[in-house]
Amino acid sequence: MPAWFVINAYVHDREPFVNIYSPATAKLAEEMGGKYIVRGRAGQVLEGSAKDGAGAIVIEWPDREAALKFWNSPEYAEVKKLRDGLADVTVTLVDG
Q1: Which backbone phi and psi does 55 adopt, to 5 degrees?
Q2: How many DSSP H helices and E strands does the chain contain?
Q3: Average pLDDT over the chain, rounded to an integer
Q4: Which pLDDT band holds residue 70 (cuts at 50, 70, 90)?
Q5: Measured CA angle at 71 (ends 4, 28), to 5 deg
Q6: What is the pLDDT of residue 69?
Q7: Nearest CA among 70, 3, 9 for reference residue 37
Q8: Alpha helices in 1-51 (DSSP H)
Q9: Cα 89 to Cα 62: distance, rounded to the nearest angstrom
Q10: Distance CA 9, CA 91 (A)
C-alpha cells in the first residue's frame, strides 16, 4: 500500500534551502523509491495555525517501510543537517 510524506515548510532562508537542501533531498528520495507528487509554494492558510507563505510537498513511497527506510537512513540524516536553521518544517507520514 502506498504511503506519502505530507510536508509543510516555512522557509526563512530560501537560497540555500532551494539550491542546496532541496536538490540533495530530491536526489536521495528518488534513489530510494520516492516520487514527488506536489512541490508548491506560497501557501495560503485557510484553517489552522500554520503560516501563510509556507510551501507544501508531497512525496509518494511504494509503502510505509520504504518511506521510513529513507527517513531513518544515515544518508538522509546527513542531508537533513543542510536544512538546519533554514526552515520550520512539519512532516507527516500517511498511508494510502
Answers
A1: -95, 160
A2: 4, 4
A3: 95
A4: very high
A5: 90
A6: 98
A7: 3
A8: 14-16, 22-31
A9: 23
A10: 9
Instruction: Please say whether the beta carbons of 3 and 67 come within 8 A.
Output: yes
For residue 44, what is its C-alpha cell? 495560503
- Whole-model pTM: value is 0.91
- pLDDT value of position 83: 96
Q: How many residues does the chain have?
A: 96
Distance of alpha carbon 26 from alpha carbon 10, whole angstroms: 18
Alpha helices in 1-96 (DSSP H): 14-16, 22-31, 64-71, 74-80
Strand-pairing partners, residue 88, are 10
14 in Cβ contact with 41 (< 8 Å): no
